[in-house]
Amino acid sequence: MSKAKPVKRVVLAYSGGLDTSIILKWLQTTYGCEVVTFTADLGQGEELEPAREKAILLGIKPEHIFIEDLREEFVRDYVFPMIRANAQYEGLYLLGTSIARPLIAKRQIEIARKVGADAVCHGATGKGNDQVRFELGYYALEPDIRVIAPWREWEFQSRTDLIAFAEQHQIPIARDKRGEAPFSTDANLLHTSSEGKVLEDPNEETPGYVYSRTVNPEDAPDAPLYVTIDFEKGDAIAVDGVRMSPATLLEKLNDIGRDYGVGRLDLVENRFVGIKSRGMYETPGGTILLAAHRGMESLTLDRGAAHLKDELMPRYAELIYNGFWFSPEREMLQALIDRSQQFVTGQVRMKVYKGCAWVVGRQSPYSLYDQSLVTFEEGGAYDQRDAEGFIKLNALRLRTLATRNRRISG
User: Fold this and answer.
1) Considering the domain boundaries, does residue 261 fall inside one?
2) Are residues 123 and 196 in the same domain?
3) Within this chain, do residues 203 and 287 fall inside the same structural domain, yes or no?
4) Is it the case that residue 205 has pLDDT exceeding 70?
5) Is the pLDDT of residue 182 over 80?
6) Is 306 contained in some domain?
7) Which of the listed residues 143, 162, 180 is the one where a domain comes to its end?
8) 168 and 216 belong to one structural domain
9) What is the reported pLDDT for 179?
10) Which end of the chain is more exposed for a tag (fewer CB within 10 A), N or C?
């Protein structure tokens, strides 16, 4: 660790848990700096006031403790733009952890400017993706900021070392934290992720006790539920005819998805740092919302626009996964995606049952579906004889190739 340039004040992304409390004290003892804590409420479902109390206990000035409700901003400005793109990393992962990191990084930098801090700090390990996501966000917004990453700097080798440090500095330790947890979790309004320990063997089924956001689909109600979702320019605005704010709407869909066991994903993925990891994700409301959004697009998007979006989606999802939310290429793709949503307005009817959610109806004032063109009944607007010339023109190069190949082989 270089001490050539002392740190005067650092903004720490602080959860109030054991690890970030240890980091807080470690920053004070190692750097001798003033620590400012920032705790973001992204809908993780935990009481956050204890984080304030713990920070005060560890010597943080009340005016240097920031606890902020960012749920609406999270869904409106991060989750919804991602849903417009139908983004899924490696075709499956709905990016619940990935999409939260740029918002936390942005707010940390804003607080650093406000309090005159010269550094920011996160608690991500040196093996994972989050260190990259946080730090790319920091540098994109404040290129000269000092970044402190304790897990890449300190000499602690085990959970025992951390607990010994905590006891030495009188940091409160919950009884169940004295041993290693069977798995680690991260949660926000969009999802809960679990990984490590009991989940490290990809050939072992995820134990039932790991799931926290969804009931077992086998135990879900035996009767299906029908729900309608209204869209306006690609964003969901109402559930069952009731208009809601972005965060409230996602909470409502989460409740539905939880009760019906929707949104479980057991995935082996490729981390940006080059490691394959196995994770278990629960994204109940997001899974319903994505299916509904695709259903709305199927009715309102032109084929060319829809297919181009699908071609670009893996690149867009990878940018988010790898931490490039604030990059010019992500912003360029977002502008294209948002332009495509101009007429993605209407209502989708979903059927939810035993772990599944699928579209059973859709309507829009901007529908491109023309029943007179697709009907099999007489009197339709489509002249089937027109297809002959279309097919011959498309077959021209294939027939030319076949003629040449027959000539050289004969």
Assistant:
1) yes
2) no
3) yes
4) yes
5) no
6) no
7) 180
8) no
9) 60
10) C
Mean pLDDT to the nearest integer, 200-228: 97
Contact yes or no for 192/186 (Cβ under 8 A): yes
pLDDT the model gives residue 17: 87
* Chain centre to alpha carbon of residue 35: 29
Q: Could you give the angle at the alpha carbon of 296 between the alpha carbons of 293 and 301, nearest 5°?
A: 110
Last residue of a domain, one of 180, 200, 223: 180
Question: Do residues 137 and 26 both lie within one domain?
Answer: yes
**Is residue 56 classed exposed, middle or buried when 0-12, 13-18 and 19+ CB atoms within 10 A define those classes?**
middle
Say if residue 2's pLDDT is above 50.
no
What is the chain's mean pLDDT, rounded?
A: 94
Does residue 255 carry a catalytic annotation? no
Q: Check pLDDT > 70 for residue 378.
A: no
- Active-site residue flag, 184: yes
Residues 287-297: tens digit of each pLDDT? 999 999 999 99
- Say if residue 19 is in the same domain as residue 164: yes
151, 59: one domain = yes
pTM of the model: 0.93
Question: Is 186 marked active-site?
Answer: no
**42-67 per-position pLDDT tens digit:** 999 888 999 999 999 999 999 999 99
- Separation between Cα atoms, residue 255 and residue 267, nearest integer Å: 23
From 41, 98, 130, 194, active-site residue: 130
340 forms beta bridges with none
pLDDT at 387 over 70: yes
Instruction: Report the number of distinct structural domains present in the chain.
Output: 2
> Which pLDDT belongs to residue 1?
44
The larger pLDDT score, comparing residue 18 to residue 369, is at 369
Catalytic residue among 9, 19, 338, 349: 19
Pairwise CA distance, residues 283 & 341, whole Å: 23
263, 253 contact by CB (below 8 A): no
Q: 389 lies in a domain? A: no
Do residues 227 and 173 both lie within one domain?
no
Q: Is residue 177 scored above 60 in pLDDT? A: no
Instruction: Tell me which of 76, 184, 259, 298 is the catalytic residue.
Output: 184
CB distance 362 to 244 below 8 Å = no
Nearest Cα to 175, choosing from 39, 18, 390?
18
Catalytic residue (one of 101, 133, 258, 330): 101
Task: Clarify whether residues 27 and 117 are in a common domain.
Answer: yes
- Cα 199 vs. chain centroid, distance in angstroms? 20
**pLDDT(150) > 70:** yes
Per the structure, the complete domain to which residue 228 belongs is given by 185-301+343-363
Cα torsion at 71, 74, 75, 81 (round to 10°)?
A: 170
